[in-house]
Amino acid sequence: MDGGQNFRIDPDRLWNSLHEMAQIGPGVAGGNNRQTLTEEDAEGRALFQSWCEAAGLSMGVDTMGNMFATRAGEDPEALPVYMGSHLDTQPTGGKYDGVLGVLGGLEAIRTMNDLGVKTKHPIVLTNWTNEEGTRFAPAMLASGVFAGKHSQDWAYDRVDAEGRRFGDELKRIGWVGDEEVGARKMHAMFELHIEQGPILEAKEKDVGVVTHGQGLRWIECTVTGKESHTGSTPMSMRKNAGRGLALITELVHEIAMKNQPNAVGAIGHIDVYPNSRNIIPGKVVFTVDMRTHLLDKLNGMVAELMERAPKLCEEIDVSFEAEIVGQFDPPAFDEGCVAAVREAAEELGYSHMDIVSGAGHDACWINDLAPTAMIMCPCVDGLSHNEAEDISKEWAQAGTDVLLHAVLNTAEVVE
Length: 415
Ligand code: HGY
Ligand code: MN
Ligand code: MN
Prior knowledge:
By secondary structure, the protein is of the alpha/beta class.
């Protein structure tokens, strides 16, 4: 892109927008609790829509609540270049996970407007509904429906811990759009996201050029024993579902450690029933999260869990059931889009390295529909999904400058 070296975003404007959005759905320790389909999510969506309209974008919303803000191109027949990520957060989330990708895209568009840049292809900025999957499993639910991985009916029937349906909550907050999910076609898609890991900071790199992502399996397990009195039930007569959770927690850790390097496993979601101090747990429902970027290794990890967990439970006289409630295979991002990211970083003089994404992202599903790549910026101590998540303005600037250039180079600037 001629003169591209001079195309730089306004880091202060970006930083101000990030922190204005962070005021919506504050956490209790400086981060955010703006969970999907809550009043706070609706408030964040409304603010984002107002900013998009102020930037001259036209907003479309589909029946999963995905938001699409379009900047017209010179050739309306050309498929658009998409950017975007998600505005929903974890219950104890940070200010930048997902939000940087949405508001970084907005800043890129604001910069295009400032510079009077015209592109052949239209440009569309997206906010994907329910990327986190914490209130309504699985993660990347709405981008998954968009990519044809789940039916909308199945997605609408997902329920939260209080039994509220996704479809009812989306309607309640007033964000059921009229566009058919997945009807939109893309020329390419770029997602800017914080790394959520320690590599870029440790290697002192400004930008991560994401070549691949980890595959993920979320296995919801139910261990069933028998509720009884914690005081009067002899140890020999107990059917303690809590012990099943403990044994499987260690098993998941052991399987991940056996598959090093580049394999992870943990249990983050746990519901104990009846969860009374003086009742032996009769049932424990929990979700195993296993990930690696090698498909055969991932399938082997899951197979070992499914082979050994029932035996461990049988030995302590409790039962084991499991259901996969979320999954995607390791994505390899489009080489052309990855090259556009790498060239943009070089053109702008930012230090960069190739990296595999540890976390899942909407881009992982969109990668099955259109050429897709991701740009990552470092985060302090690699910490994320924690209210103390932090990045520097300079890191945000570098990632957004690279996003701007990768998108403009792909959307073809018209002189
Ligand atoms: O789970 C993930 O990797 C993403 O943060 N939803
Ligand atoms: Mn995210
Ligand atoms: Mn996240």
